[in-house]
Amino acid sequence: MSSTGPAEAPDAPRPPVHVPVLLDRITELLAPACAAPGAVLVDMTLGLAGHSLALLDAHPGLRLIGLDRDPDARAEAARRIAAAGHTDRVTLVPAVFDELPDVLDRLGVPEVQAVLFDLGVSSLQLDRPDRGFSYSADAPLDMRMNPERGRTAAEIVNTYPAKELARVLRVYGEERFASRIAAAIERERAREPFTSTARLADLVRDAIPAATRRTGGHPAKRTFQALRIEVNDELGVLERALPAAIEALAVGGRIAVITFHSLEDRIVKQTLAEGATDHTPHGMPVPLPEHGPVLRLLTRGGEAATDDEVAANSRAASARVRAAERIRRAA
After folding, report:
1. Stated pTM of the model
2. What angle do CA 33, 36, 41 make, to 5 degrees?
3. Which of 146, 161, 164, 172 has the fewest CB neighbours in a 10 Å radius?
4. Calpha distance 245→254 (Å, rounded)
5. Alpha carbons 112 and 95: distance in angstroms, whole number
6. What is the pLDDT of residues 3-21, one digit of tens each?
């Protein structure tokens, strides 16, 4: 296995057994592209490599390029790939997925046959309380997918003006009580800066009306989602990466995207729908081939996990997958 980054630490903590979301559906959707001779799969969000390992097992000629900004994830993925005996077909790259064009250029790969996005926070990040992604355990208020770069959630909570903080919570967390939470944060940080997940989660719970707290899961869920998205520029990265991934696909290549909330899914839906639309100018008597669709949609809307999968893996409950096939090169 080659890597364009530094060697991964062999003694990284081992996470629990990983259950990839929508595994059977992803392997089914990407199989025709991954079975092509010399096929290259780009896993844009490698995580613990669950989907990629299944595809490598199923397609002996498949080559994998795995991107992940998280060094802990790359280390664990490298261990799992080595244990499965696929090291000679894998290249791991320390990169955010909107860097795809530069990554492919450096590797001398002009086009690929399959692209997979598994968005949101990874199982590794959720299962490591010290990373600060979870409100269920007290930890430093961090939330960076690359813990070596960028601002932390604590910096955002302690420095954003209340109006801007409310905007982040309202837009990225779809939080109805964003202004109340932001005002409470502003009051409390003046007394003492926020450094821990537990203190923030407690404040959010207290800021939300008691009647609302009784439904909809943990009261801090939406606030933590919003801060994580802001810390990692998740939606901006996705908006830049999707068109680049489609452009990298060979004709007959396939893209599959797993989302976990409506903000991500809306971006994916709109991007794939745009690629699957005929853009022949209005008034022309017949469709013009050079303005025809470049994609064919492979899913009907955002497909959800089955009841059995959700029962076996609660993280699949909010997952949706959309997929498309490239049917021509752009003019």
Report:
1. 0.86
2. 55
3. 161
4. 10
5. 17
6. 554 334 444 444 445 679 9
